[in-house]
Design brief:
The protein is mostly helical. 62% of the residues lie in helices and 11% in strands.
Length: 163
Amino acid sequence: MSEPRWLNDTEMQAWTGFLETYELLSRLVDRQLREDGGVTQVQYEILTRLDESPERRRRMTELADLMVCSRSGLTYQVSQLEKAGLLKRETDASDERGVFAILTDAGLALLERAAPGHLQTVRDGFVDVLSAEQVDQLADIMAVTRKHLRGISGLCYGSSPQK
């Protein structure tokens, strides 16, 4: 067995900085979404993904892949959103095994109510503290790492790889 390639000081600083920044931003965004919309960050992302989809609907398997979460975890979150009237589920008429999650008018209204605060939180806590060049670099870095990670077998639960 070969010796592990330990992280140097700069690599360690980048890694731990990424972890801490992710956790702090997640807490900040989650707090804002709970206050403004009564939903968690994950639930808001589900609603957003549906809003971005044609006819505000998406198959549950596709949604799980987009969200990078397990189907059971997605089902739980969708059930909570359905109980709140923010989305509904419907069997796919062309394939009875398939189920669609569909954004309701109430879900759309929640997005419209929470979006301004959400955008301001993302800007204040992340985007606006970076220069335009840093944002461009970070977008490139995230595209490379996302593509790499989505190519590792077993990390994504759906069948369609993301770009």
